[in-house]
Amino acid sequence: MNRPVAQAHLSQLAELLCWMDETPERRSLAPEARTPEGLWWEVLAGEDEKAWVWLEAGRVQGYGALVPFWDGAALEGPIIRGGNGKALLEHLIRKARQEGYPTLYAFPEASNHQARALLEQMGFSAEHTTYFYAIGRTDLAYPVPVGYKVERAEPCDPKVYRDLYSRVEDGWSLRLHWTDEELRQHFIGSEVELFMAYADTTGEPVGLAELELDDTQAEIAYIGVVPEARGKGLGRALLGAAAEWAFSNPLVERLQVRAHDHEKAAQALYKRLGFQQTSAVVTYALELY
């Protein structure tokens, strides 16, 4: 049976999430916490998230949640240890419709064939696959091509950032919905750093790399160059600048990057530099109206 997550479920939910972590074939988008205390703050204390567990014989054997995302909601899970999960996914879709979300997204690991088959059975369509790569502490420095410069951008000008973000990659849209204040707040503090490439003669921004820092890991969330400046090594120089900044922190042990399935050149570059693929996540979408 489906039940809203309650404090009494948190210990078993933590155990279910640890079970999911054991193999890629079980993984989907899920809460980050793995303790009852952490899950209380992440799942129960949040105002936006709506979460449910699937109970069999009084034990938590499944989990799913709805989180606002883009123009709709993202689906955490479905994580299923007992049964095929159809009843839980049907429940989540019904709740998403009741909330008025136009689109429901899901993000299972590519090798999670059980979840992918279930999503497709319920009408979800695969949009694209995102590949994640990681490398340990490595010198990735690369010379900036003649006629350009790469600098750490501080503070972030929302208008300049939004314009460049929209030009470097047709598929990017998440940041375009943010207000100026939301963009400024995103870049305040030490958790996010922005590097931008400029043309020397005009000062026009032509590329960016957005670096996110989290304890012992750093991730390049976005990297791109405008079409007219590609093929000169600017993307490689932006990667090198972001990596140098990340590894200047002695606590950072690993740098993660990502590339969509159509970004063949980026995938080849990361492999050539020694990055190892750590994950592949398929984006699914279901139009609810």
Automatic annotation (TrEMBL):
- Keyword Transcription included in the entry's annotation: no
InterPro entries per record: Acyl_CoA_acyltransferase, Bact_Acetyltransf, GNAT_dom
Keyword list (alphabetical) reads: Acyltransferase, Transferase
Boundaries of every N-acetyltransferase domain copy: 1-145, 148-289
Q: Which domain of life is it from?
A: Bacteria
Which GO molecular function entries does the Swiss-Prot or TrEMBL record give?
A: acyltransferase activity, transferring groups other than amino-acyl groups
Q: Which SUPFAM superfamilies match?
A: Acyl-CoA N-acyltransferases (Nat) (SSF55729)
The answer on whether this UniProt entry bears the keyword Acyltransferase reads yes
Coiled-coil spans in chain: none
**What is the recorded name of this protein?**
GNAT family N-acetyltransferase
